[in-house]
Amino acid sequence: MPTDHGLLVERVTTWYDDVARDLPWRRPDRTPWGVLVSEIMLQQTPVVRVEPVWRTWMSRWPTPAALAAASTADVLRAWDRLGYPRRALRLAECARVVVERHGGEVPDDEAALRALPGVGEYTAAAVRAFAFGRRAVVVDTNVRRVLARAVTGAALPAPSYTVAERTLAGTVAPPDDATASRWAAASMELGAVVCTARAPRCAACPVRDLCAWHVAGHPPDRHAGRRRAQAWHGTDRQVRGRVMAVLRGATGPVHPDLLADTGKDADQVARCLAGLVEDGLVEQDADGRYGLPAA
């Protein structure tokens, strides 16, 4: 039997109203800027790591204008260990564009949002829904998993986002602003805390009787052979993170000899340093020492 989309939305949003996590970027006093910062920080990073950094960041730079005036080194230090520090550079660049083009106010127009540095389809939709209460089709990995299980009966969605998924998400999203924005937050929350990838808590799910995957007896993932776990230990990404940690804690430029222990060999460290310099995350001075960008 096809899933009743209206009932699915009603059940999930009612559940969300009762159990939603109390996160600062969801509170009534949130600002569009605070929501945008949270969405950039939450990319590939769990809430538990983001929340304390977000609080410190917003206390220091509560507006785009405040961040636009900050030095690159200060921005990278404040980013701390969230990972993918290029996001910090894009966020600072985004703040400057908001100041220059939008008078310091985050726009609510989709095209204007997507024109901001570091803002793509998902982030623009999330800001419109969560900051402005607009109808927007917000689809992250959690929402994809909820829709795959509840509607299509698949254990997990396809490895890559498909046209069919986009169409389905647009069909399920309610037509009015208020309900659609609640559904966006609620479906994401359900995927994050109940309908998880590895250990779904079906007994706690508000739509288990509607879920096509649950009703079918939890058939296995048909894409299992195409999925690959991402390695971490010993990778260039890990070494880049170690280098950035050393430089964030340094009081001045660091001689490359002091970075030798960040990788498995000199070639890997040199490769990672070159990549960090190319990405604008690190600068090398005339003496060959490395440090965070000064401007």
Q: How big a fraction of the residues is strand?
A: under 5%
| Contiguous uncertain segments of 5+ residues | none
Instruction: Characterize the overall form.
Output: globular
Would you list the SSEs in sequence order as H and E?
HHHHHHHHHHHHHHEE
Beta-strand segment tally:
2
Separation of termini? 59 Å
Oligomer: single chain
- Given helix and strand content, the structural type is mainly alpha
Helix content: 40-55%
Which short descriptors sum up this protein?
295 residues, two-stranded antiparallel sheet, globular
Describe the structure.
The chain is mostly helical. The chain has a domain of about 55 residues. Helices cover about 55% and strands about 0% of the residues. A two-stranded antiparallel sheet has the order 1-2. A hairpin with a 5-residue loop joins strand 1 and strand 2. The longest helix is centred in the N-terminal third of the chain and has 17 residues.
